Amino acid sequence: MRLGQRVLxxxxxxxxxxxxxxxxxxxxxxxxxxxxxxxxxELAQHWADAAIDAQLKSxxxxxxLTADQEKDWTSFxxxxxxxxxxxxxxxxxxxxxxxxxxxxxxxxxxxxxxxKASLQKMVEAARPLYASLNETQKRTFISLxxxxxxxxxxxxxxxxxxxxxxxxxx
Length: 170
Known about the structure:
Layout: H1 3-33, H2 40-63, H3 67-94, H4 101-132, H5 135-145, H6 152-160, H7 163-169
Helix pairs in contact: 1-2, 2-3, 2-5, 3-4
């Protein structure tokens, strides 16, 4: 095991523990808002929110951003959270029990189209941050950033593609 991996594992465990703490706080907040226990959908949404928060915090701490890089992080973080929320809502719609098989396929097609659009937004929001990173940070950003999206390979490919080439393809 290399030295960098030894440092990353305890940090990852610490961030995972903070994610569990966030989840517990979210569950307490949901329960405190009403006398009814939270629904499965509410619990799942809070879990998804806590998971993306933990992933982004871990990614940010691992990157060790400078003050200038922090400015670009905020827009990337916002878009990543929005993408995860919309993906979660689309998945819930797709998995709804009252859909016919054709409606379910239509919902899946809509989710995939929405996912592609969200990925494009995320890549565009990440470009200024990515451009400011050093080579080590760029490799780390690609490795950790691909875990934020289901389309892991496409995220890495899009981030590595120069923006001038991307605009010329369209």
